[in-house]
Amino acid sequence: MQTDREREHHEPEPSDKSAPFPIPSQIPVFALPNVVLFPKTYLPLHIFESRYRQMVDDAVMGGQCIGIALLKEGWESEYYGNPPVFTMGCVGRLVSVQPLADGRSNILLQGLERFEITEEFQDKPYRRASISLMAREAEPSLDPAVRQRLVSTLEEYLRSRQDAPTWQGWFREDVSDDILVNTLSTYLDCTPLEKQFLLEALSLHQQARRLSDLIQFLMHDHHGAKGWG
Fold first, then answer.
1. Could you read off the pLDDT of 196-228 as tens digits, one per residue?
2. CA distances for 105 relative to 7, 100, 120, angstroms
């Protein structure tokens, strides 16, 4: 694999007041087999392949954005080429780049907006694409019943887990609906395809309902054996 991902549980913030970040119409796309990035979440990555070192260098010099897309099944045979990816991904803003002595680096991406690939380019060692942003229409808030169902389902799932207190902060009412749903989508221990299913939801309401259903599936099918990353 080209990355070593270390997940950290960040304390939730009451709201996201940052100004919109300008997203270029063409961006590098980092295709991964097991990672789905969601808006308003953070993704730490360790970069060591030469083509992705160049990708980071180019992103630093222009645009500050890298798209994260999920590889489709069967990618192994074409890994060093351009295996097919799901066309919907998420743009990540380079929040920090920590160069290492041997040319590797640790980077941190902040998820901005979902995108759809409209055209791919092969003029670089890494994948580049023209994108169309897939920002959802503004939703004032989740239906209170939808949020309550999600929180109740999650509380039931975590009840028998020793790390349950770690997650209590996410149940605060001042945590916005989109941050709650996207963060839980990130840390839920489901398959990459299931995370892609969450990312592609047409609305935040639909994503919250899908998330509740997946948590219930984990409880009923695996009897709580799986945990959080």
1. 999 999 999 999 999 999 988 888 765 544 444
2. 17, 5, 26
